[in-house]
Amino acid sequence: MTDKELQVFLEGTVNYFHEVSGTPAAMGVPYIKETQDEVSLDLTGAIGISGNKKGVIYITCPSLMVKELVGIILGDGNPDSGSLCDMTGEIANTIAGNARQVFGANFMISVPIIIEGKPIHLKVAAPTFVIPITWRSHKSFLVVGIES
Amino acid sequence: MKLLIVDDSSIMRRAIQKYLDENRIEVVGTAGNGLEAIEVFKKTDPDLVTMDITMPEMDGLTCLQELLKIKPGTKIMVITALTDNATGLRALKLGARNFLGKPFTPEKLNEAFLKLIEGPKR
């Protein structure tokens, strides 16, 4: 994956948080994930990629961050676990789907897969890039593994 | 006017309902996939539909075509994260009246609904 392609996901993530909350996310310096690294927080939303690119994109977030987002969108300060999972999937879906503006209509995305509260070992194409995200003091990670 | 909201995300279904400030619109049903949408559509006979594309069971573009076979005059607005031009064009060619990308603000949603109800300005 080229730097320009990686930039698509950086910009998509900044735009997502800005549009939804009025506060853009701050993106950290991306790094390449080593095989043994575990990049996993409370809630993870993963999207499979097929078509002209193959791989996986996932975002992994603390539940407090997702709770705050649901609060902003719905005004619901005490969302249930199902709503938090749903929200996490929707973040991943939107960031991956928006990337079609650059990758084109043959960049096919799956419905979101949600993983709650356990370490994840998704088979992701190497090299896998980890992009640290900070939004309103919450730290999360976008992980992008797409074959060149 | 009666509205059916179709999206596999319950957050998005509730957000559309919450953001809607058009008092001419009454939400008569929601559905989480295309197959469910067809069933709810037959029961509620809506005038307007918001339609996600990436959904399990039946995707939104297939569902859109099925709904228009049942009631050709239905005004369908595709609301999707797939914001590339080709997808937008395809949705319009298949009969969607409007196309809105995710994420959206309440202002963008209501502007899109106005356009859906009133049609393009000449």
Structure description:
The complex is a heterodimer of chains A (148) and B (122). Chain A has 148 residues and is of the alpha+beta class. Chain A has one domain (3-146): 3-Layer(aba) Sandwich (Chemotaxis protein chec), CATH 3.40.1550. Helix content of chain A is 36%, strand content 29%. Chain A has helices spanning 3-21, 63-74, 81-98, 100-103, and strands at residues 26-27, 31-32, 43-51, 55-61, 107-109, 113-116, 129-135, 138-146. In chain A, strands 1, 2, 3, 4, 5, 6, 7 and 8 form an eight-stranded antiparallel β-sheet that branches. In chain A, strand 3 and strand 4 form a beta hairpin. Chain A is globular and about 40 Å long. The model of chain A has no long low-confidence stretch (mean pLDDT 91). Chain B has one domain (2-118): Response regulator (Rossmann fold). In chain B, 44% of the residues lie in helices and 20% in strands. Chain B has helices spanning 10-19, 34-44, 60-70, 85-93, 106-118, and strands at 2-6, 26-31, 48-51, 75-80, 98-101. Chain B has a five-stranded parallel β-sheet, with helices on both faces. Chain B is globular and about 30 Å long. The model of chain B has no long low-confidence stretch (mean pLDDT 94). The A-B interface holds A 15-16, 19-20, 70, 73-75, 82-83, 86-87, 89-90, 93-98, 100-101, 104-105, 109-111 and B 8-12, 14-15, 18, 54-56, 80-87, 90, 101-105.
Which helices and strands occur, and which strands form pairs?
The complex is a heterodimer of chains A (148) and B (122).
Chain A: H1 3-21, E1 26-27, E2 31-32, E3 43-51, E4 55-61, H2 63-74, H3 81-98, H4 100-103, E5 107-109, E6 113-116, E7 129-135, E8 138-146
Antiparallel strand pairs in A: 1-7, 2-7, 3-4, 3-5, 3-6, 4-8, 7-8
Chain B: E1 2-6, H1 10-19, E2 26-31, H2 34-44, E3 48-51, H3 60-70, E4 75-80, H4 85-93, E5 98-101, H5 106-118
